[in-house]
Amino acid sequence: MRIVLRRSERNEARVLARWRPLLNAAIVGEAPLSLPPLHPAERLPFLRLWAHLQGSLRGEASDALNEVARRLGIDAHARVLLERGTRTARLLAALVLGHMRDKDAWPALLRMAGQADNTVALTALWALVRIDPRAAADYMVPLFIQREDWALSLAAGILQQAIAPATVALARILPDLEPARLPRALRIAEALHVTLPAGVLRTALLSEAMPVVIAGLRSVRTPETIAEVRALLAHADWQVRVQAARALGRVGGRADADRLLALLADREWWVRYRAAQALLELPALSRAELESLRASLTDRFAADMLSQAMAESGMT
User: Fold this and answer.
1) Which of 48, 147, 28 shows the shortest CA–CA distance to 99?
2) Residues 188 and 226 in one domain
3) Helical pair 182-192 and 210-218, crossing angle rounded to 10 deg
4) Do 190 and 265 fall into the same domain?
5) How far apart are CA 250 and CA 283, in angstroms?
6) Which range marks the domain in which residue 304 is found?
7) Which residue among 30, 85, 100, 183 is least packed, with the fewest CB closer than 10 Å?
8) Residue after which a domain boundary falls, among 146, 178, 194
9) Does 17 fall in a domain?
10) CA 24 to chain centre
11) Cβ count within 10 A of residue 74
12) How do the pLDDT tens digits run along the chain, 316 residues long?
């Protein structure tokens, strides 16, 4: 075993010594006109080196590495690995083909994306979105909504490369989505910081299902649904009132100051705290006006909460 390991390490070192200078030259726009042949024993170490370098590149430098890979036939070799390689080799091949935006790899990557192995599936999805963001978003948005075992951060991280088509896909899917799936879909929209159509949000805010209402409030980014947000300030559930206060801070105006002041007397600490923060976020209120509002409060707990929020924001 040690002999095999040492032999592998020596081969890796030879590949690095031979190919790193050539790849670095390509990165700075000085790729040689002719390239040496890539021997079969060099392929995997080369792929690892190439993928490592490509991971930190953008623009022309990335394109230059892709061109070197194509000249060496790396795309064809990676497609073979995708179908027949070990798990490690298939993961590496998916990364390489994603960076190369290789459309011929699409069918095999789709099959990988359907595997039970989460690492394999998510790597394939990353490659798909690199190859064709629009088609990938149409495939992935419903999948990410369904796969509640996948962290939202993972879904958002992959879809960040396809924000526009993902927004279109969400707007198309949400109106007909079963209620049990709505909170997850709305949380994906929130994680991507996308602005959903007002009609879609309005339906969520008027829902009788509290998780849907809360997820809808977290996605409010424009004032088109401000009437629904204001109405939810009086919701029976304190978690809804918390999110309504936060949403009003994002999209409200001077006329909403009194509504938020009233919430400073709420029986729940978190509602009072978020209402105080929301008051500070209202764009129409100056510091002097906030000081005046604080002085006008007769409820000691309300005044203390506004003072705390102002202190945390550096206003006192």
Assistant:
1) 48
2) no
3) 10
4) no
5) 9
6) 220-316
7) 30
8) 194
9) no
10) 31
11) 23
12) 565 456 666 657 787 778 888 888 888 887 778 888 888 888 888 899 899 988 887 888 888 889 989 999 999 999 999 999 899 999 999 999 999 999 999 999 999 999 889 999 999 999 999 999 999 999 999 999 999 888 888 888 899 889 999 999 998 998 888 888 999 999 999 898 888 889 989 999 999 999 999 999 999 999 999 999 999 999 999 999 999 999 999 999 888 988 999 999 999 999 999 999 998 888 877 777 777 777 777 777 777 788 788 888 776 6
The DSSP secondary structure of 237-260, one letter per residue, reads SHHHHHHHHHHHHHH--GGGHHHH
Q: Name the residue with tokens 């088509």.
A: 165
Do 171 and 251 fall into the same domain?
Answer: no
Alpha helix (H) residue ranges in the chain: 2-27, 43-54, 59-71, 74-84, 87-100, 106-113, 118-131, 133-146, 152-159, 163-173, 182-192, 198-205, 210-218, 226-232, 238-251, 257-263, 269-281, 287-296, 300-312
CB-CB contact of 126 with 118 (8 Å): no
Q: Is the dihedral of CA 91, 96, 99, 103 positive or negative?
A: negative
Can you tell me the distance from the alpha carbon of 312 to that of 314, in angstroms, rounded to the nearest whole number?
Answer: 5
Q: Could you tell me the CATH number of the domain that includes residue 301?
A: 1.25.10.10
Number of structural domains, the chain?
A: 2
User: Please, are residues 162 and 134 in contact by the beta-carbon 8 Å criterion?
Assistant: yes
Residue 302 falls inside a structural domain: yes
- Indicate the pTM of the whole model: 0.77
Q: Is residue 8 included in any domain, yes or no? A: no
CA angle 186, 190, 192 (to 5 degrees): 115
